[in-house]
Amino acid sequence: MRAGIDWGDVAVIGDDWPDLPLLGRAGFACAPPNAHPEVRQLVHHVTAAPGGEGAAREFCDLLLMAAGCYADLLQAHQGTLDAR
Fold first, then answer.
1. Could you give the CA distance from residue 45 to residue 76 in angstroms, rounded to a whole number?
2. pLDDT at 75 (0 to 100)
3. Which end of the chain has less neighbouring CB within 10 Å, N or C?
4. pLDDT number for residue 4
5. C-alpha separations of 80 from 46, 57, 65, 70 in Å
6. CA distances from 4 to 8, 9, 10, 20 (A)
């Protein structure tokens, strides 16, 4: 990859045929349950939330949890609410 990142380190979410080449190369590929059937068959994970109804948020949360960052980031954001 030109950016110096290995495809195995790439995570992507998609839902239709134009996304297939990227989904097929990514180390972690995800799709919402209302994605095209060929897309759902290719990906590593299908979200519980449909596209347009929280699938992207769920995808981001999965990545944050896998990286071990979720709890710390949530706590930091809750701290900004408490400061008001």
1. 28
2. 87
3. C
4. 87
5. 32, 20, 21, 16
6. 12, 11, 11, 22
**pLDDT of res. 77:** 81
Q: How far is CA 58 from CA 1, 19, 65, in A?
A: 27, 18, 10
Q: Phi, psi at residue 82, to the nearest 5°? A: -65, -25
What are the 10-residue block averages of pLDDT along the chain, 84 residues in total?
86 98 97 98 98 96 93 83 57
Helix axes 70-82, 55-66, angle to 10 degrees: 110
CB-CB neighbours of 57 under 10 Å = 11
Q: What is the reported pLDDT for 1? A: 60
Read off the pTM.
0.83
Contact 23, 39 (CB under 8 A): yes
User: Tokens standing for 73?
Assistant: 């980031």
